[in-house]
Specification:
By secondary structure, the protein is α/β, with parallel strands linked by helices. It folds into 2 domains: 5-150, Rossmann fold (3-Layer(aba) Sandwich); 157-211, Arc Repressor Mutant, subunit A (Orthogonal Bundle). 50% of the residues lie in helices and 12% in strands. The protein has 10 helices and 6 strands; from the N terminus they run E-H-E-H-E-H-E-H-E-H-E-H-H-H-H-H. The protein has a 6-stranded parallel β-sheet with strand order 2-1-3-4-5-6, with helices on both faces. Helix 7 packs across helix 10. The longest helix has 14 residues, at 13-26. It is elongated. The relative contact order is 0.09.
Length: 219
């Protein structure tokens, strides 16, 4: 039996406890962490590397679907399974397009969950039987292809500000004066943006800003 490291993300401690107990008793998987909100998860991912995250949709501060691209930016190889009470087909589409490989209902938290974990680790999309009639394999695979080709890196508000200013030709010193931060801080942000966006020079940052709609070619 395969063994994978798993993190549970749900704002209800009793739900997390039930899933943890099931996984520990019925599988060889290791629950290496559990949190109740999205920001706590992002902090946790600075220190651990799970194989799979089981993720609720409705949580305080940061919802599960909004969280997906941020998780994958930090650790692109993590496999994500939405585990929710919401029987909503639009949520299925949104989750798959955001980058999840699995979408299960909490009522599926038994053998369906174990199968889903194995399937997503093999790169297969898995959804609850509740939605099987609505989503053919072709539709699911199309969602997966579309999200893989269009995943956008999530920038912080400060990074967006600095990217826009860089793209308009504003110098590091001028950016620092406008934002009331040091020139060195601006330089650090510029270097970080280049690394995250795989940009070798400033022109690459400008191209990215235009292609992702942060500025228009006329700006």
């Amino acid at each position: 039996m395969n063994s994978y490291n798993i993190i549970l993300v749900d704002d209800h401690p009793m739900v997390r406890r039930g899933i943890r107990t099931f996984l520990e008793e019925e599988s060889a998987h290791n629950v290496i962490g559990e949190v109740g909100d999205g920001f706590s998860l992002l902090d946790l991912l600075d220190n651990v590397q799970p194989d799979v995250i089981l993720l609720d949709i409705t949580m305080p501060k940061l919802g599960g679907i909004e969280l997906i691209p941020r998780i994958l930016e930090k650790q692109p190889d993590i496999k994500l399974i939405i585990l929710t009470m919401h029987k909503n087909e639009q949520y299925v589409c949104s989750a798959l397009l955001a980058g999840a490989l699995g979408f299960l209902l909490k009522e599926d938290s038994d053998t369906e969950l174990l199968c889903a974990i194995d399937n997503v680790m093999d790169g297969q999309i898995t959804i609850s039987p509740e939605f099987k009639r609505s989503f053919s394999d072709d539709v699911l695979n199309d969602c997966h292809k579309r999200q893989a080709s269009s995943r956008k890196i999530a920038l912080s508000p400060r990074e967006e500000q600095i990217l826009k200013m860089i793209s308009k030709g504003i110098t590091n010193k001028e950016i620092g004066e406008i934002l009331d931060i040091s020139k060195r801080t601006v330089e650090n942000h510029r270097a970080s943006l280049k690394k995250r966006l795989n940009a070798k020079k400033t022109a690459d940052l400008v191209k990215y800003a235009i292609s992702e709609g942060y500025i228009s070619p006329e700006d």
